[in-house]
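User:
I study polymers; will you set down one protein's sequence and backbone structure tokens?

Assistant:
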Amino acid sequence: MGRLKRFLTNRIPKLNNVVFVESGDREVSERILPALYSQCPYVDLVTCFGSAPGAFDPARGVVYDIGLYPGKEGRNRLFAELRAKHYSAVGIMCADLPIMFKWKWVIAAQLPGKLFIVNENSDYFWVDRANWQIVRKFILFRFGLSGADAARTLTQLALFPFTVAYLLMYAGWVHGHRAIRRGLTVR
């Protein structure tokens, strides 16, 4: 309920400590970190890169490299460490790259801090009821369901089950004929 409550309220929490999931282009992190530091004294970073960005201040945060948390036990340990910090906000980078796609969304779901999304232009918005139209447009854009791509994407979605059915029937027909031929030549 805590996560849903943060979505339903328009109140922006006092930013004491923030975790930012760097899941995209390093340049975006280089631009957004100074803006975060101007509003928050403590910023932790979750990354898949081997080092922290140049704009990261190690005196004002911790870097969590997901490479150091392998397997299910490692993931659970990372989530427990992050939950123990009681972040006031969770930032995820959605920069149109599939880097750490599952990680960022699981972290956003696991942590009770207010969620904000950073795009490839280093613009950000809070995910809450006041911004529901921005969130909706963002999701539609990311899934290719806005603008000229919408018709093509919807057509592909509509044709996908028929394509799979056709391929399964064709594979069944080919393998059926192969089985019949083998059955006739074995005798």
Notes: Residues 69 and 75 are 6 Å apart (CA to CA). Helices lie at 2-8, 26-39, 71-84, 101-110, 132-142, 149-186.
